Amino acid sequence: MEANRTADVQSNVAGQEQRSQFSAYRALRLLETSLVHVILVIGALAFIFPFYWLIITSIKSNAELFIWPPTLIPRTVELFHYGDALQEVPILRYMGNSTYLTVLNLIGVLISSSLVAFGFTRYHVPGSRILFAALLATMMLPHHVTMIPLFLVFRALGWVDTFRPLWVPAFLGNAFFIFLLRQFFASIPSELFDAARIDGSSEFGQYWRIMLPLSKPALTTVAIFQFQWTWNDFLNPLIYINSQSKKTIALGLQDFYKSQTTVEWQQLMAASVLMVAPVVLVFFFLQRYFIEGIALTGLKG
Predict the structure, then answer these.
(1) What does the alpha-carbon distance between residue 199 and residue 8 come to, in Å, rounded to a whole number?
(2) What span, in angstroms and rounded, lies between the C-alpha atoms of 5 and 3?
(3) pLDDT at 107
(4) What is the pLDDT, as a whole number, of residue 97?
């Protein structure tokens, strides 16, 4: 009996120690999770705050614009600054030009980059690895190195002050997007293409009916990147566009700032909100595909 009681006591002590260790482990895990969430919330607020400040500045009154301490929630909301901004400069025309260039760039980069990536994925011919390495090596060249030679080429073609230098290169492929799509295409089982070939499908049919439908996350990622780059591009339109009617939204925003003798900050911020809003909305509605595409193409950290 004494031995049984001793064994029960030892078992209870061991059980209490295990429960204590488990409780300590759970407390530690809860602390780690809480700390991670706090850091993420602080980081999110740090990134969101400039955009929030942009919006509230566009609707503040003159009395609240420069007061100290600043007001985080405007006491009066003045939405007429957006109408004034639209009247000062033809922002809608600039947005139309940017939309035109963005659509052409999206079509060009999706077609050209996906075709080249499909070729590098499906056809392993002698020298293909060298060609792919040379393609990736072009990513090491800064844009400022090729900017002047490209300008000389486009000037010789008579394309200065036209939209062509801003969308034709998109139909010639993009090294980064080709790399990104190739990484995704390589994860698709080759048995699907073998079965399609047995059924009599052509190479283009395999690309169109199998590769593209299965690559929506990667293609969406490419589209978001290209949309953001084209919409926000300032340097290239500044180099090639001279006519007022052909300017993009980025150049139009600069003209809006330069046209004012006294800066109307609410109108400037309102115009900036109109410029940024399409990028934010596109990412907001397509973020699921964007995150999935990044995770499946090997670009995650």
Answers:
(1) 71
(2) 5
(3) 95
(4) 92
Q: Is the pLDDT assigned to residue 21 strictly greater than 60?
A: yes
Output the CA–CA distances (angstroms, integers) from residue 2 to 7, 10, 11, 14, 16, in the order listed.
Answer: 9, 12, 14, 18, 21
- pLDDT of the residue at 106: 94
Give dist(CA 265, CA 271) in Å, integer: 10
Q: How far apart are CA 57 and CA 78, in angstroms?
A: 10
Closest CA to 89 of 231, 255, 276, 242: 255
Mean pLDDT of 145-168: 92
- Does this model's pTM top 0.85? My answer is no
Question: What pLDDT is stored for residue 178 in this prediction?
Answer: 93
Output the six-digit token pair for 22.
């488990």
pLDDT at 33: 87
Handedness of CA 5, 9, 12, 14 (dihedral sign): negative
- Compute the average pLDDT of residues 180-208: 86
Half-sphere exposure of 32 (CA within 13 A, CB side): 6
DSSP assignment of the chain, as one string?
Answer: -HHHHHHHHHHHHHHHHHHHHHHHHHHHHHHHHHHHHHHHHHHHHHHHHHHHHHHHHHT--HHHHS-SSPPSS-SS--THHHHHHHHHS-HHHHHHHHHHHHHHHHHHHHHHHHHHHHHHHH---TTHHHHHHHHHHGGGS-HHHHHHHHHHHHHHTT-TTSSHHHHGGGGG--HHHHHHHHHHHTTS-HHHHHHHHHTT--HHHHIIIIIHHHTHHHHHHHHHHHHHHHHH--HHHHHH--SGGG--HHHHHHHHHHT-SS--HHHHHHHHHHHHHHHHHHHHHHHHHHHHHHHHTT---
**Separation CA 105–CA 232 (nearest Å):** 13
